[in-house]
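In these records, each integer encodes one residue's backbone shape. Here is one protein:

___
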Amino acid sequence: MLPKLDTLERWAYDYVVSTSLKHKLSPDRAPRESDQEFVGLRVDVPGRPGELRVVSHARKAPRKGALREPARRAELLHTFLHHELQAAELMCWAILAFPNAPISFRRGLAQIAEDEVRHMALYHAHIESLGYGVGEFQVRDWFWERIPNAANEQEFVASIGIGLEGGNLDHTERFAKLFREVGDEAGALIQETVGAEEVAHVRFALHWFEKFGVAPTFDAWLATLPAPMSPMTMRGDPLNVEARTRAGFTPHFLTELRAWKPAPPGS
């Protein structure tokens, strides 16, 4: 059964399944009222606007020198926009998948989804300023291939909040420097804005990880990650220690994250 109209859950459902690019880029504000009778729903795949060309393997991130070309910067920003889209959708996915979670948690997910939509708008505007549009480059639903493996709320915040958004604190700092080095100050400022605002998202995830189980030590986080997630895809080089510390990571967690290596094959 679908959630009732004009509820938080219906807003989340409508966003995930929408095939309208306009809706994806600019949804209505999330209602605060919850559907108390909603029993939960796991959406298998998101709605995809016809403008988006989803592929199974995306191109690697461009090298430093390649960003001198507006087309390569636009392509990279397009990838970032799609990351934000998937993050917004998956926050809505969790609102639907975990209906018995505290309402403050689910409202927090909606607020984060709205932040991701706002970040999409920043990327969208700069892509257009470079002479391109949404849909002119291929995208990959990499997040959707992994995050819905989360069996519970703690696995969800471990993977997307502590993991992927934590990694984005590193990546936004690195890409801000790369954009600035090729003279794209607007692109650099967008990266810095997104990175600064995602500190609160990571703090939210660390807080709820502990509320749902145990203290967010590195070992507890690692043990909670659903397959096939691993720290390899959740850290940049170098780590943004200042932003991660503001988000709530301990020095020990960051030391362990920096040093972590996958087990050798067959071990």
